[in-house]
Amino acid sequence: METVANVAHREPWNKGKIVGQKAPFKLRDIWALRVRFQMENRVRELAVLHRTRPRRAESGQGAGPSGARAGPADADVSLR
Fold first, then answer.
1. 16 assigned to some structural domain
2. CA triple 43-30-55, angle to 5 deg
3. Which whole-number Å values give the CA distances from 74 to 39, 59, 60, 79, in the listed order?
4. How far is 24 from 34, CA to CA, in rounded Å?
5. Domain count, the chain
6. pTM for the complete prediction?
7. How does DSSP assign 27-47, residue by residue?
8. Is residue 31 part of a domain?
9. Count of alpha carbons within 13 Å of 32, Cβ hemisphere only?
10. Tell me, what's the pLDDT at 32?
11. Per-residue model confidence as pLDDT tens for the chain (80 residues)
């Protein structure tokens, strides 16, 4: 029968690593990835990158000093 002293102690695989949510990509990192994907003709990755990009950060259109911004809530147009 094995005793507690004979059992090998195993460290967790993520000991010492930062866990949790990662920081978002910076704009220059997104463009670097896009250029590499275009050069390598990797259409699938370009499509995924296009779907996940931060649209407000790229276009430069965000909330102004007043905090007002146009969005889905402002586009309440009833279609009849």
1. no
2. 90
3. 39, 19, 19, 15
4. 16
5. 1
6. 0.43
7. HHHHHHHHHHHHHTT-HHHHH
8. yes
9. 5
10. 93
11. 556 666 688 998 988 888 888 888 888 998 999 999 999 999 999 998 888 765 555 555 555 455 555 555 555 555 54
